[in-house]
Design a protein that fits this description.
The protein has 271 residues and is mainly β. It has one domain. It contains no helices and 12 strands.
Length: 271
């Protein structure tokens, strides 16, 4: 019988997009205008109307830790199998921001030279607390050791989504700020939370080669799947009523699956 704990994480997975125009090419943010029942777009840049730029940024961070008891259940020639059980915590942060900046060249309902800065933020946080059980098998052949892992965690997933926005308009007399963007209006701005039962199976394989009595090189692969996760992109609703006569855009939780492939390379030094 033994005890152990692990901590791991992946930080800074960033996907970005940016574009700018002096007004000679079009940059537009599409949406469906509920108040007029028509497909519409906010013109970030448009010939004769405005010049501007847009920046879209998506980030994803994952953190996991566990603590467990482990015991041997089978020993054979060249192999052994251990069973383990304990507590597992995982967290997935998924964020999306859309920011545009425009300067009016003419038309558009604003004086020439007016600047409009619009920001939409969608932040999703998932925290899992649960129990975990699993098996680890180690197979030895000369200097090579292959380890197989299979485990299942079951518990509660707390999903928390925060939606916020900001619009800054400056017609020349000083900036005026409002707490809404384009896809973030009074109807969906806020923080939403719920709890869902989640299942997290995980499978892994690691190969370690002992170079000598003091050094071993290893490479591994791991697959993890989450059954219930809230994602930032699922919080985006393109149905917009800028008059807010109807509550659009609205927010509704969606059940999303999430999976991860991970490759590890390392070395073990003994002395």
């Amino acid at each position: 019988m033994g005890a152990g704990a692990t901590v791991w994480g992946f930080a800074g997975d960033i996907v970005g997009y940016g574009n700018s125009s002096d007004g000679s090419t079009i940059i537009a943010r599409p949406f469906f205008a509920v108040d007029t029942a028509t497909q519409d777009a906010f013109l970030v840049a448009y010939p004769g109307v405005s010049r501007g730029s847009i920046s879209i940024r998506a980030t994803n961070d994952i953190l996991g830790t566990d603590a467990y008891l482990r015991t041997n259940v089978w020993v054979g020639r060249g192999f052994s199998v251990d069973a383990f059980g304990g507590y597992e915590f995982m967290r997935i942060d998924d964020d999306l921001s859309i920011q545009s900046s425009s300067t009016i060249l003419g038309g558009g309902g604003f004086p020439v030279g007016t600047t409009l800065d619009i920001l939409d933020n969608f932040d999703a946080r998932n925290e899992f607390h649960g129990g975990v059980i699993g098996l680890v098998g180690d197979f030895h052949y000369r200097r090579l050791t292959v380890s197989l892992l299979a485990k299942l965690a079951v518990g509660n997933m707390n999903q928390r989504v925060t939606i916020s926005g900001r619009t800054v308009v400056d017609t020349g007399g000083g900036p005026v700020t409002s707490n809404n963007g384009l896809l973030t209006q009074a109807s969906n701005i806020g923080t939403y939370s719920r709890n869902k039962t989640a299942y997290i199976p995980e499978f892994g394989v690691t190969a370690a080669y002992s170079v000598n009595d003091y050094l071993a090189l290893n490479v591994g692969y791991r697959f993890t799947w989450w059954s219930n996760v809230a994602l930032a992109t699922d919080a985006v609703n393109l149905n917009v009523d800028q008059t807010q006569v109807t509550p659009n855009p609205s927010f509704h939780f969606r059940n999303a699956e999430y999976y991860m492939h991970a490759l590890s390379v390392g070395a073990t030094v003994r002395w």
